[in-house]
Amino acid sequence: MSMNILVLPGDGIGPEIMAEAVKVLELANEKFNLGAELTFDDLGGAAYERYGSPLADETLERAHQADAILLGAVGGPQWDAIDPALRPERGLLKIRSELGLFGNLRPAILYPQLADSSTLKPEVVAGLNILIVRELTGGIYFGQPRERKVLDNGERFAFDTLPYSESEVRRIARVGFDMAMVRGKKLCSVDKANVLASSQLWREVVNEVAADYPDVEVSHMYVDNCAMQLVRAPKQFDVIVTDNLFGDILSDQASMLTGSIGMLPSASLDANNKGMYEPCHGSAPDIAGRGIANPLATILSVSMMLRYSFNRADAADAIEQAVSQVLDQGLRTGDIMSEGCESTGTAGMGDAVVAAL
Amino acid sequence: MSMNILVLPGDGIGPEIMAEAVKVLELANEKFNLGAELTFDDLGGAAYERYGSPLADETLERAHQADAILLGAVGGPQWDAIDPALRPERGLLKIRSELGLFGNLRPAILYPQLADSSTLKPEVVAGLNILIVRELTGGIYFGQPRERKVLDNGERFAFDTLPYSESEVRRIARVGFDMAMVRGKKLCSVDKANVLASSQLWREVVNEVAADYPDVEVSHMYVDNCAMQLVRAPKQFDVIVTDNLFGDILSDQASMLTGSIGMLPSASLDANNKGMYEPCHGSAPDIAGRGIANPLATILSVSMMLRYSFNRADAADAIEQAVSQVLDQGLRTGDIMSEGCESTGTAGMGDAVVAAL
Ligand SMILES: CC(C)[C@H](C(=O)O)[C@@H](O)C(=O)O
Ligand SMILES: CC(C)[C@H](C(=O)O)[C@@H](O)C(=O)O
Fold first, then answer.
1. Is the CATH number 3.40.718.10 carried by domain A1-101+290-357?
2. Residues in B touching A89 (Cβ below 8 Å)
3. Average pLDDT over residues B258-273
4. How many CB atoms lie within 10 A of CB A192?
5. Hey, what CATH topology would domain B129-257 get?
6. A288 assigned ligand-binding residue
7. Domain ranges in chain B?
8. Does B151 touch chain A (CB under 8 A)?
9. Which residues of B touch A261 (CB under 8 A)?
10. What are the helix (H) ranges across A221-295?
11. Hey, where's the site called Important for catalysis on this chain (chains A, B) (predicted)?
12. What gap in Å lies between CA B121 and CA A337, rounded to an integer?
């Protein structure tokens, strides 16, 4: 199995954290004989500066050729005022869509070593381990028509469209159920079926798919209630499956519950488990270039990639163990710092993981 | 000024909690010479049973005639399987829309006496006092077209539309700014302008309205980030203004941060401050009929009504003080119970507020 990996460091802290992840990947490559070949390119603001587009055609071509993609993060205030069609986020949305990466896995895990970092009471979040499965190439993010115009009465007016088809719901529901099967066998599908037509179809199709997974306990929850329950009793959840927009909101909320968003990787998979892997956090322009960002989410994205796209649980486990060991040693970047621990920077953390590996 | 109030107890715990609120309102009526006249009717499931519709024409007519409306809560599992167009929620959505109640005020306040009830650490939520201003008659809740169909390839397909016009955004933005002026002079507008056309218009119009409120500090936040920030550092917010769907999600999340959702009233106002007032919590079918629901959110909705729709700060203050006094006495319903306090039921709590008043 070939292992051609396209590395897209992106913007803000992206290049710094990616440098550490690449160090770790290169060591794992040697140690476990992975046969990984890395190609580097730009996405987002960096691509806009270099190619005049947040996703150049040649980059997209490289992404198609690659077996997997590692992404840092995109975006920054310097591109706030440019043509919306050229903004960094557009590159991210386009690569998701063009590669058909419809299955977005966003784990929210509380690392026991970081239990204090959560703003929630320890008893509410201890042992938290939720997987949010977000539909990533459909819904209101890509729905057509979307338009902005001036009405006859002279008023400005804009609208978006939220569409879902049966097959789009079915395939993401399957990802949710498959994940539930290898986890706690509980799936909560989140929608707004008391208001939205698309949600009514969503709920119906999830119930149909459920028939193929008799071992999974299925429930349905309205998105407003889910946002409440994630605060009230987050440990009630195992796998949550939901649409693109709700998944965007709920996964950010859930990751913050852990207090360690700097630790959380994510995967975006196509129908053949080809994937793009990236940290859950953003490009953090405010701390970019200062060597203080936490590289662990990106390092753990490498491990997620080896596990899901290349079936290399051996190397994936080793990286995760190395990260855990570094946390046990008490090493912390600023975002996860707490009393009695030893403060370090981006490179220091990366080096420590390399040493542990 | 006439004070004709339409009382709609609704479903689930609605009738129980409303009975207590009415006791309090009747006493305030006497004590403060309010001249309130009450009419009673049904909404939601109760209306479906009585009239065959979740909002009967004659009820809507009474709502139009009234100066203000007091609502308990609607919905319950016994109506899950009926024609979606007749479900309890439809009555609620229709009354909001028909009366033009576009301005939904949802405070999230942590009562000092109940600080322990929050799942968040005390230092994160102590003194929390956020007001969410939610647009309530537009956006994806009411957008047309919305449709469900079968595509040419035989697949089921459904879509919703998320529209906003300049005037819709402007009037809700004004409510947000007006509220900020009488509070902490900080307004955060929440949207998803990096993805949605409607959000781009939203942000543009909020910025235009801001010019009329130079004393208010304005910021913009993406909805996913806001869901994170509400967990990370909720006290950074004063007033949040947002669209119908985002407001639904964020207000539920914010109310749960306080740990005392049984305490939170809400108001839905039209252009002339005519309003409908209701607790933030739902109809809680699981505890309906057992006399254990917390009536305080409904009692505080009475006080909100007297303040916003009738300018009777005197009576509103007195009710709020009575509630505070009862909490100081240590009286608690189950949802807010904590060690060392005295447990009571719905009627016990209502009677205590009446006594304190
Ligand atoms: C940058 C933005 C377009 C993106 C999204 O909304 O999907 C981000 O928030 C995410 O969750 O990956
Ligand atoms: C019952 C439902 C339709 C309603 C809404 O989504 O607006 C409720 O969740 C609310 O927030 O008042």
1. yes
2. 194-195
3. 93
4. 27
5. Isopropylmalate Dehydrogenase (3.40.718)
6. yes
7. 1-101+274-357, 129-257
8. yes
9. 228
10. 223-232, 244-257
11. 141, 192
12. 18
